[in-house]
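Entry for the shared binder. Reason: the reviewer on the internal report wants the predicted structure included alongside the sequence.
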Amino acid sequence: MIRSSQCAKSLLALALAAAGFAAQAADKVTVQLKWVPQAQFAGYYMAAAKGFYKDAGLDVTIKPGGPDIAPTQVIAGKQADIVVDWMPSALAAREAGVPLVNVAQVFNQSGLMLTCKKASGVASPKDFKGKTLGVWYGGNEYPFLNWMGKLGLKTDSDIKILKQGFNVDPLLQNQAACISTMIYNEYWQVVDAGVKEKDLVTFFYEKEGVATLEDGLYVLESNLKDPAFVAKMGKFLKATLKGWDAAVKDPEGAAKAVVSADTSGSASLKVQKRQMENVAKLITNAGTPKIGYLEPAAYERTVKVLLAGGSDPVIKKDPGKAAYSHAIWEAAQK
């Protein structure tokens, strides 16, 4: 009896130790998204839903964004390990003293565009003069301001800027000739509101030569000096990119993962599936070994665009190679 009791106690102790080890083994990672739950971030939700993070030994918290949440401020306050942001706002924040470094570039194409009603008299960029144009701020205005500089249009006289909320009302109510839209989101809100596609004209920043990189992953520069952090984030990135590959292959599954994660209940399966199908167009290297890799040439193009803002450039000096690192992406390849 004594031996049996001792054996049982030993087994219990081993089981508790194993359970304790398992609990400790899951590395915690917090990722801050740029906006509310939607297919723009399907890869993260898919990685969670499919168990890719758990399989990698990670306990990942996905924090949704919103109109009052700036990822750069969140990571500066050390409330996230890694954030999703657009490169213009990330580099502007870096120049302002928040040492952000791009460690992966999920979207390698820009989805940003101006959408205009043909009835407003806009058929080409030369028709912008004298018009009211809706622009998102909070870091999203930088590519637009650069574009206007390239066109030689003064934003305080040649055009009128309407600081656009994150909706399409200014176009629907004829308060602006054009508004900011994303190929995967607001453009379709306009169409869903009853405006026919044939009555719209769109200008893709990518095609206008003023596109900057969107939806990259950024960490604080100091953390890259910690090998344990790099290894942990390498596991996170590997699982995340696996999630993105799965989302591109299965838009409906991705939509379900997003809808399940949306506690507000506002995301619908139909809309999120359509959004995912359009998001997939911005990840042209999905399913290849290059997914998530920041091409130095694309980085340099973005910097060049941001520096070319005339009297009001987004950034005043080239941040050089210090603003990006392939260390975590390379760790993800192991």
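Summary line for the report: The beta strands are 27-32, 58-63, 82-85, 100-105, 112-117, 132-135, 160-163, 178-182, 200-204, 216-220.
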